[in-house]
């Protein structure tokens, strides 16, 4: 796949699909491919779409795609679906809802199963975003799995996070409980033609009035707008997109966009280091028999778990000459 990197940069869809599959399956060339793509990333603007199941995230995503295409933007979509703990399969229903865009060469849609990962994203989501970034997408939409209080991981991947609420389901109160108020850059009250939409808008506005949070720093703060939408009728979509772009302009003008991306790189680097350290320790300590030896000692109460862990780390990180 490494020899196909130029084709990806030239916009070859088949190559993009193959590279994403390689990354999802943790293929042998994965690290080399990501290394080659890295200099060509950092250009796409990433929008996270999160909220509870049934809120209409897929329908809204579909409408945002259309609005961005009308403005001549190339769009990538990563739709994360839950993986069954019994069969290991995923429904991948978002492909059905966004079917109208599959013949559009300016849109690339990929559904991913969580494969047991928590936090609303699949384990390899962030790496897939790099492929779509290098592929030349102007915007990448990430629709999370929709599992309520574990949705917070999206803020480590998206530049702008849209939280979708609906009337009649207690979503606004649940969002407050879940801490989603803290990650939302824009609120979309979808199905706003239903009874109770005004109450949801009022509740969120009141909470925003009471909240003194600021994600943007400096003297200017960003107050998340609350936008009413009816995705099934394409109502409010342009207003929602305008709110997203207004947030982008705010981040760029305040310098916070670069700062937040820098923080995400720090987090990514830390996660990669931890992953490699775990592999190093596991491979070295388990093969040496030290793991089983210390495990028995802990069970026999001749050594405590904390001391055993320190011993494993110390010996695991010492490279043999």
Could you describe the 3D structure shown?
With 321 residues, the chain is an alpha/beta fold. The chain folds into three domains: 1-38, no CATH class; 41-254, P-loop containing nucleotide triphosphate hydrolases (Rossmann fold, 3-Layer(aba) Sandwich); 268-317, no CATH class. The chain contains twelve helices and seven strands. It has a seven-stranded parallel beta sheet with strand order 3-2-4-1-5-6-7, sandwiched between helices. α8 (197-210) links the parallel β6 and β7 (226-228). 36% of the residues are buried. Mean pLDDT is 83; it is low at 83-94, 115-120 and 213-219.
Q: What global shape is seen? A: globular
Number of E-state strands: 7
How much strand? 5-15%
Cα radius of gyration in angstroms: 22 Å
Kindly report the spatial arrangement of strands forming the biggest sheet: 3-2-4-1-5-6-7
Query: Alpha-carbon distance between the termini?
Result: 34 Å
Count the helices. How many?
12
Blueprint of the fold:
Elements: H1 5-9, H2 13-24, H3 30-37, E1 45-51, H4 57-70, E2 75-81, H5 94-97, E3 107-113, H6 125-134, E4 139-143, E5 160-165, H7 171-178, E6 186-189, H8 197-210, E7 226-228, H9 237-254, H10 256-288, H11 290-299, H12 305-317
Parallel strand pairs: 1-4, 1-5, 2-3, 2-4, 5-6, 6-7
Question: Which descriptors apply to this entry?
Answer:
alpha/beta; 12 helices; 321 residues; globular; 12% strand; seven-stranded parallel β-sheet; 3 domains; Rossmann fold
């Amino acid at each position: 796949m490494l020899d196909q990197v130029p084709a990806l940069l030239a916009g070859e869809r088949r190559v993009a699909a193959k590279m994403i599959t390689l990354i999802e399956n943790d293929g042998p060339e994965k690290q080399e491919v990501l290394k080659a793509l890295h200099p060509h990333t950092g250009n796409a603007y990433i929008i996270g779409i999160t909220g509870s199941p049934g809120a209409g995230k897929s329908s809204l995503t579909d409408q945002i795609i259309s609005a961005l295409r009308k403005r001549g933007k190339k769009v990538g979509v990563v739709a994360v679906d839950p993986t069954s703990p019994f069969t290991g399969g995923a429904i991948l229903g978002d492909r059905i809802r966004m079917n109208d865009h599959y013949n559009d060469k300016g849109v690339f849609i990929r559904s991913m199963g969580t494969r047991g990962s928590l936090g609303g994203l699949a384990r390899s989501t962030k790496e897939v975003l790099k492929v779509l970034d290098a592929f030349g997408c102007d915007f990448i939409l990430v629709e999370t799995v929709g599992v309520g209080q574990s949705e917070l991981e999206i803020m480590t991947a998206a530049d702008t996070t849209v939280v979708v609420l609906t009337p009649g389901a207690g979503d606004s109160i649940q969002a407050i409980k879940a801490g989603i108020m803290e990650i939302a850059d824009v609120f979309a009250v979808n199905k706003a033609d239903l009874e109770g939409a005004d109450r949801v808008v009022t509740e969120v506005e009141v909470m925003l009035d009471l909240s003194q949070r600021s994600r943007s720093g400096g003297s200017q703060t960003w107050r998340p707008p609350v936008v009413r939408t009816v995705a099934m009728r394409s109502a409010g979509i342009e207003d929602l997109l305008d709110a997203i772009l207004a947030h982008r302009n705010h981040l760029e003008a305040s310098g916070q966009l670069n700062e937040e991306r820098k923080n995400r790189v720090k987090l990514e680097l830390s996660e990669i280091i931890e992953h490699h350290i775990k592999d190093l320790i596991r491979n070295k300590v388990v093969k040496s028999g030290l793991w089983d030896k210390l495990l028995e000692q802990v069970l026999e109460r001749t050594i405590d778990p904390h001391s055993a862990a320190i011993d494993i780390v110390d010996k695991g990180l010492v490279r043999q000459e």
